[in-house]
Structure formats: C-alpha cells, structure tokens
Amino acid sequence: MSNSSTDSGLKKGKLGIVGIVFFVVAAAAPLLGMTGAVPVAMLLGNQAGTPGTYLAVGLVLLVFSVGYAAMSQKVTNTGAFFAYVGKGLGKHAGVASSFAMLVGYITIQLAIYGFIGGVLSGQMAAEFGMSITWWQWALIAWALVTGLSLLSVDVGAKVLGVLMVAELATLIITSVAVFINHGSSANLGNSFSFDAIFAGGFTGGAGIAIAFAFASFIGFEATAIYGEESKDPKRAVPRATYWAVSIITVLFAITAFAMATAMGGNNDAIANYVAKASSVGGTPLANPAGVIFSIADDNLGGNWMSTIMSWLVISSCFAGILAFQNAISRYLFALGRGEVLPKMLAKTNKSGAPVNGVIVTSIVAAVVIALFAFNGLDGIANLFTWMSAVTAVAIMFVEILVSIAVVVFLGKDKSVHIFKSVVAPIVSAVGLAVGVYMLMSRFNLLGNLAPANVDPTTPEGAWQLTGFGWFLVLLPFIAAAIGMVLSMMNNSKRNSELLADILS
C-alpha cells in the first residue's frame, strides 16, 4: 500500500486497439469454449447445427455492438455498462446494473479458478505424479493473477498477447487440417441452414445450443471498460468491440464447423463421436475436452497437438482469470469513485492499476475457493458449473438494460443515425431477451442443478430447479435490487453529484 495514490484516475494512453482486443478475446477464452462448451452443445443440443448457432448468436451480439459502440462515442468510463445504463435509465438503474455486472464477472472468474484447478490437478498427476488438490492449484493461479494485476495493465496485455497467439494458432491449424482431410465431405447446409440451427426447437435441442453459445461469448463486452486507459477511446472502443466480436464469432463458427466435419457432418455421427470421445468410465461428457483432442490427433498425426492444447487450455483459463480480474477491479474503481462503495476503491498505484479494487477482488476469490475446499466441493463439477451458469444470466440481463438505455439516451440525438440509436438496440434487446429466456429455462443443465428424477435435457425438464438452483439463477436480479435500494438510500446531494460526474 505504500505506493498507493489517492488519485481517482487510471493511467491514460496505455492501451491501443490491439491491447483491448487481446483482453477481450482472452476473457472469452476460446480454447476453453471449444473444449468445454461446444462438445456439450453438440451432444445435448442440435448436433450438426451447433456451428450455425454460434454464428447466429455472434450476429445478434454484433447488432448489440452497434448501439454499444455508438454509446462509447458519448460516454468514456471504466464502469462501461454501469455508466451507459445510468446515462439512459437514471443513476439508480445504473447502480443496479453495476451490482448485477459484479455478480457476473466475479462468478465467471470463480468458475475459471475451479476449472483451472481441476484441470491442473488431473494433468499434473498424470504427467508428473504430483498429488496437489484443485484448490491448491487454484490458489497458485490466484497469486500469479493478483501480482500481474497490481503491476500494470500493459504487462497484462503483453502476457495475454503471447498466450492468445498460441491458443488461436492451435485452433486454426487443427481446423485447416480437418478441411484438408475432409473438405470434400463438408456440408454447409447441415450446419448453417435455418432448419439445422433450430433443430429440436427452443425448448429442446436448439434452446440448449443457444444457451451454451451465449454463455461462450461472455467477456466480449469488456471493451469499454478500458476506455479511460486507451490512447483514443472514441476510436479504440468501437473498433475493438467490432474486432473482438467478429474474431470470436468467426473462430467459434469455423472451428465448430471443422469439428462437425471431422466427426462425420451428420447428427447421428456427431452424437456418437462426442459421446465416445468425451466419456470417462462410460459417462459421456465427463471429459468434453477429449473431443477436440481426439480430432487433433486424428487429423494431424500423433498426439503432439492435443498435448499442446492440453497445456494451452490451462493458459487460456489463466488469461481469462487475469482479464476478469482487471474488469472486476475497474468496476469497483468506478463504484468507489462514485462513493456507491467505499471511496478507497478509487485509489490507483504508481502503475495506474486500481490497487484496492484488485485486492478486494482477490480477497473475495480466495475466500470462496477456501469455502468450497473446506466443504469438500469439486472445482469443476461444483465451482465451475454453478458459477458459469450465474454469469451467463447476469451479463445478458445487463446487456438488455444497455440496449434499452441506448435507445433512451441516443434516440433523441439527431447526430446519431437511427439504425445505431434505435433499430439495432431494439433488435439486440429482443434477441438477448430470447437468449436470457433460454439460459434461465436451461439453467439446470448449465449448472447441473435439476431436482432428482428430472431430466434437464428434455422439453419437460425446462425450468425444473432445486431450491439452491433458484437462488443462483435469481442472484443477478437480487444483486440488482440490492444495488437499486442502496442507491436510493444513499441519495445525498454529494452522492448525486459524484455519480453525475462519473456518468459524464
């Protein structure tokens, strides 16, 4: 704390478009998505139609990005969604959205801590005979992430750059190898037609795939969070947003299509392949990463690529944790600056990092990891599945509020084209609302929280949750309500002036 400053400003001009894109794509953790989400979406969802589902969801989020980028031209604030919702719907709604966003980002970081701990525990035991528990590995990652976050956002961008290049290269090389070997059998209609995408209907296979696809994009919206630290926010944020969403969409759609092609291209062949490659002890999807590893081995000869991927899954997790550490600490910084939360959170250190926000974020993560470890819960089966499910609902809920706020705030601004200020935000709000409905109706599948004797993969299994499951699925809304109440209670003149200042 000796280097802490009382300044309430982040270091300016440290990030360009490329640096922001690295943070955002890293937060989406594409290799984690391809090893974790895509195989599940294929087996339980619409099989061959999964690549088209990812493309469709990406297009919805690109439409969302139109209004989001237009808003970034008018508001540059590290609170991003908080500031945008506040500008359009009022400060109380802005604070409410910030609490929901904090739930979303904190839970996704916790989810990835659980995943990286579980993966490292199994992998290091198999490779080197090291018997270290998942939570011990998670705490090792926690220490590294905390240290990097306290140094400088620039250092983080450089680290993420190296990891991202390697991660993307493995997916691209594997996809190219598949198309070289199986290109003649690739069938675009099987994966990208309307019938393929919506096979099984919203309450069946298509709904499951849509839910997993939306969850896989979490993190793209972080572009505006780094606006205050960018060299030219009015130029960098919109461009970084479009680049990030486009890269993630193309990467997921093409890689998923390559996977589908390698597995035979039709529904039955894909279902059989995923079930076999992901099984452990006869249980399908016990190891979903085995699907793309198997495809890499089959198409590149030997197991060299799957070995590289297995380690890059870990680096992908680490990059995601680091990206969300930065995002959470900057949200805390914005709320501290507005005195919604303690003002000490608005302090930065000599590197320009929101030091107290980083420390609070790390303390929360350490406490939750310790609680799960103390209660004998598993890093992947419990921490990862439960927390990632909460995240998906929280972020999309706030994205809907942002879309509405864009219409309210920019709709009266004649200098902004009506497509950017009204049409695109309304279309995205409707699309996101459908996505939230899918996520909540299938929350029992995402979080493994269905009651006994209920099959969450069937249409009848929709909305069937345990009591704890209902608490988790409603947690973002509970947090938003708490934020709204606190904002109304703290409605002093000084608080109003501070919030008005940071929403400017």
What does this structure look like?
By secondary structure, the protein is an all-alpha fold. It has a single domain (17-502), classed as Amino acid/polyamine transporter I. The chain is 73% helix and 0% strand. The chain has helices at residues 17-28, 30-44, 50-74, 81-89, 91-128, 134-151, 153-182, 188-192, 194-197, 205-216, 233-262, 267-277, 289-300, 304-337, 355-374, 379-410, 418-441, 443-446, 467-489, 493-502. Helix 1 crosses helix 14 (304-337) and helix 2 (30-44) runs antiparallel to helix 10. The longest helix is centred in the N-terminal third of the chain and has 38 residues, at 91-128. The model is unreliable at 1-10 (pLDDT under 50).
Summed up:
This protein has 504 residues and is an all-alpha fold. It has helices spanning 17-28, 30-44, 50-74, 81-89, 91-128, 134-151, 153-182, 188-192, 194-197, 205-216, 233-262, 267-277, 289-300, 304-337, 355-374, 379-410, 418-441, 443-446, 467-489, 493-502.
SSE order and pairing:
Blueprint: H1 17-28, H2 30-44, H3 50-74, H4 81-89, H5 91-128, H6 134-151, H7 153-182, H8 188-192, H9 194-197, H10 205-216, H11 233-262, H12 267-277, H13 289-300, H14 304-337, H15 355-374, H16 379-410, H17 418-441, H18 443-446, H19 467-489, H20 493-502
